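Course exercise 7: structure representation. Students receive a sequence record and must write out the corresponding structure in token form. The form below is the worked example handed out in class, using Ribonuclease BN (249 residues). Read each field label carefully; the graders check that inputs and outputs are placed in the correct fields and that the protein name is recorded exactly as given.

STUDENT ID: A-19
EXERCISE PROTEIN: Ribonuclease BN
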Amino acid sequence: MRIEFLGTGGFHPNERRHTTCLMVPEIGLVLDCGTAGFRIAEHLETKTLDLFLSHAHLDHICGLTYLVTLPLIQGVEKMRLFGVQNILDAVRDSLFSQAIFPVGPPFEFHAFTAGDTIELANGIEIESFPLTTHPGGSTAYRFELDGQKIAYVTDTTVDGTYTEFVRGADLLIHECYFPDDNLEWAKTTGHTHTSSLARLAKDANVGRLVVTHVDPLNLDDDPIGLDALTRVYPNVTIADDGLTIDLAK
Ligand SMILES: [Zn+2]
Ligand SMILES: [Zn+2]
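STUDENT ANSWER:
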């Protein structure tokens, strides 16, 4: 199987990155649905989609409105949206309020409590974990595909609470919004800075790190000061939109 990085920026899109959205096309799994959500259409391989939200900030949900086209144009038969209750309530009551978007939500809502494990129809288990340092909180996920452990963590500071949750992951997909010289901003906004992520990747003994959800105000090839990371933990890639990770390789 492969993981498609459809959107790899935070906050707002820029000319290089749409906001965050990951997809595993073979099983119709989507993690977050930012402005890159429209790219789900070109990667579709299934008639059903299971979408998991980390939280309901706009850069993670605003692509959801595009999904109303998928049953009509692409023949998608069922979409399920998973998240903690207040996140799903916000999507239904705010994003899909009549004043903002006149078409009703095209998916079923499935609420869970952070910490739960959700079993999908294909037998894949998605484990969740509550993150508390980002305003309003966020949810981390981990699951296994092709015998590889994958963890997805975004919109949080590295606070030590979820080290065990990501320990031993073959692939850790983690946000890094700020380089170390913006440390104070990272704390204020509840985001990760580079050297804290380096320590996490090393301490948790992950096999590979892919950095996503980077600052859209910086369009450089290296928006996070990569040296501070590779000095401590070398096996890292900064994702761009269009990155594909083939788990079989
Ligand atoms: Zn975000
Ligand atoms: Zn956020």
